[in-house]
Amino acid sequence: MGMVFGKICVETPKYKVLHSTALYEIRQYPPSVVAQFTYDPSDLKGDKDGGFAILANYIGALGNPQNTKPEKIAMTAPVITKSQNQESEMIAMTAPVVTREEKGRKTVTMEFLLPAKYGKAEEAPKPVDERVVITEEGERKYGVVGFTGVATEKVVAEKVEKLKERLEKDGYKIIGDHLLARYNPPWTLPPFRTNEVLIPIE
């Protein structure tokens, strides 16, 4: 019942707050290991969250874990999504580097942060589904703004625009596209949901 009212009872990433204002925080995150799935929503009938079941199957959240051990992996929060608009150029995606040339296609990468006990990618169970990639992310710094409710494209776009404006006004250099972090399952009542927009900075 607690999850309906927004109680977060799973592991969340540790971070250090470097600077805080009334409008946003600057956070530094330590290295982490993630499971990710990149896809074109049009291939999944327009479902932007279509990667969730693929990743949930990998960790065993929806039944038997789909990894080679097989080992059930604890769910963590948040679930991260990032969108890429791809034009007619070669774009480096994630590590290991995958390059794609897909004119005018919009892809989404969904990530599950794996529990901190997996310090290296090779320590995590290997996925059965080859579309799931286990990779490491190094230390990184973000400008972050939190919000409640449903993270619709319109709401997220507004939060991103405002955060970019504030960060640039305050002298921060933006070095990549935004991430959307959602901390609650879809059955959580909208007023109790915790969402964040994160923008990478130098």
From TrEMBL:
InterPro entries: Reg_factor_effector_dom_sf, SOUL_heme-bd. Coiled coil: none annotated. Pfam families: SOUL. Belongs to the HEBP family. This is SOUL heme-binding protein. It comes from Malus baccata (Siberian crab apple).
